[in-house]
């Protein structure tokens, strides 16, 4: 199947996980989702990533985002590995890890990049909206652990920009100024944004975070 692109419908699946058999859409309900793959169980970078993800779960919960991880090892292996993650990362893994032994989900989401490794998944991240459309795709190599602050930052941007006619500038963080959507004329923007509109250039207009 062709690789997924932004705006595509995230494929649904039913899979064995560390928390039993789960259907992805049922698990997500009407909220947001983040699906991320790991090369293999009992590997050092993945161990730190899953521990970090568990510590971030409270922040994702606040934003109505459900996490689901994946590796191509089996559910029993995942359960043993989770014990190590909990012990070494001083946390409790509190979200399911797909046991994708038959690589069904990896194939659906194009998580195996054969020229990098022909059997293990790369570090893919998909953020999925309540409409089940793919909102973000990131792909990291096996040797680079992901930055979960960045994933939260993107969720904040996606949730803000899906509700307001704004976009978020480089290195933006929650609460900072945002840019007015290019589709909105400045005069109209001044009516919409009660915090004021600063016109740096006709195409670059700043306004305070409308939710702050
Ligand atoms: C890791 O998670 O530590 C890892 C996995 C595959 C290759 C390199 C590192």
TrEMBL record:
Residues 4-160 form the Thioredoxin domain. Belongs to the peroxiredoxin family. Prx6 subfamily. Belongs to the peroxiredoxin family. AhpC/Prx1 subfamily. Coiled coil: none annotated. Keywords: Antioxidant, Oxidoreductase, Peroxidase, Redox-active center. GO terms for cellular component: cytosol. It holds the Pfam family 1-cysPrx_C. GO terms for biological process: cell redox homeostasis. One of its GO terms (molecular function) is peroxiredoxin activity. InterPro entries: AhpC/TSA, Peroxiredoxin_AhpC-typ, Peroxiredoxin_C, PRX_1cys, Thioredoxin-like_sf, Thioredoxin_domain. The active site is at 46 (cysteine sulfenic acid (-soh) intermediate). This is Peroxidase.
């Amino acid at each position: 199947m062709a690789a997924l692109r932004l705006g595509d419908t995230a494929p649904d699946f039913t899979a064995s996980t560390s928390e039993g058999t789960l259907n992805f859409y049922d698990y997500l309900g009407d909220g947001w989702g983040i699906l991320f793959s790991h090369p293999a169980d009992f590997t050092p970078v993945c161990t730190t990533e899953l521990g970090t993800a568990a510590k971030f779960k409270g922040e994702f919960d606040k934003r109505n985002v459900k996490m689901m991880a994946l590796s191509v090892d089996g559910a029993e292996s995942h359960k043993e590995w989770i014990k190590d993650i909990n012990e070494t990362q001083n946390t409790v893994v509190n979200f399911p890890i797909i046991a994708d032994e038959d690589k069904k989900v990896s194939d659906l989401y194009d998580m195996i990049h054969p020229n990098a490794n022909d059997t293990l998944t790369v570090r893919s991240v998909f953020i999925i909206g309540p409409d089940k459309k793919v909102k973000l795709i990131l792909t990291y190599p096996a040797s680079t652990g992901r930055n979960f602050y960045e994933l939260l930052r993107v969720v904040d941007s996606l949730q803000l920009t899906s509700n307001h006619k704004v976009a978020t500038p480089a290195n933006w963080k929650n609460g900072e100024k945002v840019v007015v959507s290019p589709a909105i004329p400045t005069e109209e923007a001044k009516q919409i944004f009660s915090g004021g509109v600063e016109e740096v250039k006709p195409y670059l207009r700043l306004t305070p975070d409308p939710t702050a």
